[in-house]
Amino acid sequence: MKPVLEKIISPADQSFHVRVFEEKYFTSPWHFHPEVEILLVENGYGTRFVGDSVMNFFPGDVSIIGSNTPHVFLCHSDFYKSDSTRMAKAICIQFNELLWGRHFTELAEYKPIKELLETSLRGIRFVKNTASKLEEKICQFPGKQGIGRIGLLLEILEIMAADHDKVILSSPNYGNIKINYKDVNRMELLIDFVFKNFSREISIAEVAAILNISRNSFCRYFKTRTNKVFSEFLSEVRVGNACKLLIENKMSISQICYESGFNNMSNFYRQFKNVKHITPSEFQKKYLNYRLLESGNP
């Protein structure tokens, strides 16, 4: 479950990147990048992981994912069968928050979009009429050239900012991985270690030693880059793994508890409810409703 830092390079004649994915299933790993991402799923269904959120996605799904927020869209197992003729398709727009320059982003008219981008650090999904409007706009991007691309992106962000029915994906206390490019390697090293070792006991002294700093320095360092203490982050990683295993439904809840790094069931239930606001069994029932996938309704 290591989130991969994806480096996005836009074409020389374009200020932001637009890609169309059309493949048997979405192949991007659990990843993050400094660019904000807007994603329209035109075809495909499965499970969307954004930050500490785990939800289903369907055709017509539109979301915006903020800078450096880990995410992945995993297609349903139907798409991985060797004889499957299904295809997954999505349009992905990736842009830097300062695309228009700092002075532009300080304009009063830009304030709703600025607030939208701040909220997008938790991931946002759009529904109903707004999703339909956004789908129509996003589908205009492939083949769009010139200054009109920038105007179209602003239109999309304005529609998103004005929507009162938007669904915030990650929990309120979720803080995304804030990367300072001067220490990208240090954070990658730390994140890699946590995602490889979360199933066992990890001490502050151990992770501090990885960065060759004291315990107190590590605590300050981690807090300034994630807006949370290390134990909260570790718990969210463990709960995220538990969510994945609950959806796969191949282990008992007690097995999932220990496989995810919790030392007893009561602690597992307490930490799970702190992050997801429901119990593990309630979560499993909610996300194993395959009739929802079959009906195609979000």
Question: SSE layout and pairings?
Answer:
Blueprint: E1 4-5, E2 17-23, E3 31-32, E4 36-43, E5 46-50, E6 53-57, E7 62-65, E8 71-75, E9 88-95, H1 102-105, H2 111-119, E10 124-126, H3 128-138, H4 148-162, E11 167-168, H5 184-197, H6 204-210, H7 215-226, H8 230-248, H9 253-259, H10 265-276, H11 280-287, H12 290-295
Parallel strand pairs: 1-3
Antiparallel strand pairs: 2-9, 4-7, 4-9, 5-6, 5-8, 7-10, 10-11
Helix pairs in contact: 2-4, 3-4, 6-7, 8-11
Structural account:
The chain is built from twelve helices and eleven strands. Helix content is about 40%, strand content about 15%. Strand 5 (about 45-50) and strand 6 (about 55) form a beta hairpin. Helix 6 packs across helix 7 (about 215-225). A six-stranded antiparallel beta sheet has the order 2-9-4-7-10-11. A three-stranded antiparallel beta sheet has the order 6-5-8, covered by helices on one side. Strands 1-3 form a two-stranded parallel sheet. The chain is globular and about 55 Å long. The protein has two domains: about 5-170, Jelly Rolls (Sandwich), CATH 2.60.120; about 180-285, Orthogonal Bundle (Arc Repressor Mutant, subunit A). With about 300 residues, the chain is α+β, with helices and mostly antiparallel strands.
Tally of separate helices: 12
- Taking Cα atoms only, what radius of gyration do you get, to the nearest Å? 20 Å
- According to CATH, the homologous superfamily of the largest domain is Regulatory protein AraC
- The helicity comes to 40-55%
- Output the CATH topology of the largest domain: Jelly Rolls
The span between the termini is: 26 Å
Oligomer: single chain
The main pleated sheet reads as: 6 strands, antiparallel
Strand content of the residues, in percent?
15-25%
Q: What CATH architecture label of the largest domain applies?
A: Sandwich
Number of domains: 2
CATH class of the largest domain: Mainly Beta
Q: Taking strands numbered 1, 2, ... along the chain, how are they ordered across the largest sheet?
A: 2-9-4-7-10-11
Overall mean confidence score, pLDDT: 85
How many strands appear in the DSSP assignment? 11
- Stretches where pLDDT is under 50 for at least 5 consecutive residues are 290-298
Structural class: alpha+beta
Strand and helix order: EEEEEEEEEHHEHHEHHHHHHHH
Shape descriptor: globular
